[in-house]
Amino acid sequence: MKLTNRFNLPEPFVAAVSSDDYERGEAEYTSTELIKPSRILAYSRKYESVMSEDASDRVWAFQGQTKHVVLERIAKSNPDRYLVEKRFETTMPGTGAKISGKIDLFDKNDATLYDWKETSVWKFLIGDTEEWEQQANINLFLMRMNGLMPHRLINIAILKDWKARKARFTKEDYPKCAVHVMPLPMWSVGQAQEYISKRVEKHRAEMANPPVCNKRERWQRDANFAVMRTDRKRAIRLYQNRDQAEAAMLHAMKIAPPGDSKKFYIEERAAEPVRCLDFCEVQTYCDFGMEADKKWKEKHASETKD
């Protein structure tokens, strides 16, 4: 993949984000690839030689790589106890597909398989951890096929945009610290084998003509209606339909101080495919992604002018 530097960032930074010692091995699919939408996997393989990425977009990937240094330190502190960043492989019966996965850390003392994830507070709050569970259980299956038997699966989620001030003053479910320990459900061998086989069959069948990602795969937020005030940026509350929002707005207008009733209004927020707009590496090769980006730019043209 070609690396660009649109913002003329310093060469040391570009050099830092350019280095990547990732090796996927010779497996047909890795645990990370298996859980990807078919279109993203197919297009990333098809256009790999011509794809480009800007150095500025690699800042989070670069930050994520720092965990490797931490894991190496853990391993050196007690090599008999910790198994760190080891790749496991197996060949699936039936499909014959060679599958591989690289674990973060396995604690031999209590048989716990750990995975480190950097994520946003937003994703943490909505509880969108399905892919974490899938990837962790694929790696668990691979370890079992290689004679190791973890008894627990735990994700250590690092909330990269966590704010201490919000934690102090927000009474709702805002996390109280930037690190969250998340136990994950453990699948049986049969359950994992069935899941992996189905994903292999799906990717193979759709590789030549992959369908558009579904709503969940696009991380698409539902359309909603926000009750707003002209003197504040954030919504007072979000509602799923306009009738609910209008009822809430009328009540707020009724109890508002004199002169404030005219400050309320309703803002319709359209559904947006978040992954397509901001996080998809193949967006510029996907007709759906390009159209979503075009519509977003047209809608927000006045806001993005210099």
Keywords:
Lambda Exonuclease, Chain A; three-stranded mixed sheet; alpha+beta; 306 residues; 15 strands; 40% helix
Report on the architecture of this protein:
The two termini are 31 Å apart. By secondary structure, this protein is of the alpha+beta class. The chain is globular, with a radius of gyration of 23 Å. The chain is 40% helix and 21% strand. The chain folds into 2 domains: 2-206, Alpha-Beta Complex (Lambda Exonuclease, Chain A), CATH 3.90.320; 220-304, no CATH class. The protein is built from 12 helices and 15 strands. Strands 4-7-8-9-10 form a 5-stranded mixed sheet, with helices on both faces. The model has no long low-confidence stretch (mean pLDDT 90).
Sequence stretches where pLDDT stays below 50 over 5 or more residues: none
Q: Name the helicity range.
A: 40-55%
In the CATH hierarchy, what is the architecture of the largest domain at level 2?
Answer: Alpha-Beta Complex
Number of helices: 12
Question: Which secondary-structure class do the elements indicate?
Answer: alpha+beta
Distance between the termini: 31 Å
Strand order of the largest sheet: 4-7-8-9-10
Please state the CA-atom Rg, rounded to the nearest Å.
Answer: 23 Å
Largest β-sheet summary:
5 strands, mixed
The helix/strand order is EHEHHEHEEEEEHHEHEHEEEHEEHHH
Query: How many strand units?
Result: 15
According to CATH, the fold-level topology of the largest domain is: Lambda Exonuclease, Chain A
